[in-house]
Amino acid sequence: MTRKEIREHILQIFQKEFEIENPDLDDNLREKHEFDSIDAVELLLQIEKMLGSELTQEEKKQAMDIRTINHICDYVETMAKARGIDVSRD
Amino acid sequence: MERQRARHGLGLARDFLLTIIIWTYYIISFFVFFSFLYAFRLVFAKNREFSFQRVNAFFFRTFFRVLAILLPRVSWHIGHDVKAIRSSVIIANHLSFLDPILLVSLFPRQKTIVKSRYFAMPVFGWILKRSGYIPAFTHGEDTDILLEQVAKMRQYLSAGGNLFIFPEGTRSRTGKLGTFDKGAFRIARQCGAPLTILSIKGTGNLYPPDSFLFKTGEDMEISVEVVKTIVPDQENGFESISAMIAEAKSALSDRMNLP
Fold first, then answer.
1. B137 contact A CB<8A
2. Which of the residue ranges A66-80, B7-21, B150-164, B232-246 would you say has the lowest mean pLDDT?
3. Are residues A38 and B183, on separate chains, in Cβ contact within 8 Å?
4. CATH of the domain at A73
5. CATH number of B2-255
6. pLDDT confidence tier of residue B139, bands split at 50, 70 and 90
7. Domain that holds residue A28
8. Tens digit of each residue's pLDDT (9 = 90 or more) over B51-60
9. Cβ separation A57–B242 shorter than 8 A
10. How many domains does chain A have?
11. A37 touches chain B (CB under 8 A)
């Protein structure tokens, strides 16, 4: 898995599930796209599917403060590494 | 002119007096009777969350009965199909502080999304948590509550519970519909639950936003009606969230005769 693949997957999720097309990677999702806590819970479900394993309660709590697509990619990368998935840079 | 001014003054005095009586009843009935009921349910109930929701419904049903006695010029019309709603995500327009407590009074199993600051209030915040209500914005301990409640939502809805949400997020000052938040629609889609749209009329006249006083001197009608139920397609789930929002908003506008 590469960082680029993670980013593309996340952008696909945003397009399909949240109807947010091509957000800027540093957009504040809450302020610019009204991304709320219920959306964040849905995103976590999608990330679990992507990683093929469930996130712990502590890991989910960490995600609730995420604000940008870049932060989400960092988060997924960290979670993937914690599960022994190799993540290479682009 | 003088007579008109005197009549206005008398009207205000009556509004003030009745408002004081209503809120005094509210506070005293809670501390003298309902607080003990909550305590009893806390100790003895098998399913505390459901038990607290039933007490909430009982408390507010009683409150509205007292309101009906004190304000005989107000007529109440609650559709039988409203009271029969189960296992649904319910959305409604929002006109007054009375709306959420009116909906609590109608459903024995009810949850809703509540402004986070209320969760920090003594007594009230504790009841909200025990009743399984959900904080609107999350940080710290609220995050645990949100994650726990969303995880349990599908099971709660299939067991007959209702989740009601005011998608405008705030009371309308003009009677017009504001922008709808996506939360209710997303939860309905996630859980494959029917989305029921209610129209509420008249509460904003009886207890307007930004006013402490009930308006007690006018004939008025308060009604709650089912506008439409959108049932998820078992095969394909719901349509897109924005299409659901557009459908709900249009149905509600039509029912309320809004442009």
1. yes
2. B232-246
3. yes
4. 1.10.1200.10
5. 3.40.1130
6. low
7. 3-82
8. 999 999 999 9
9. no
10. 1
11. yes
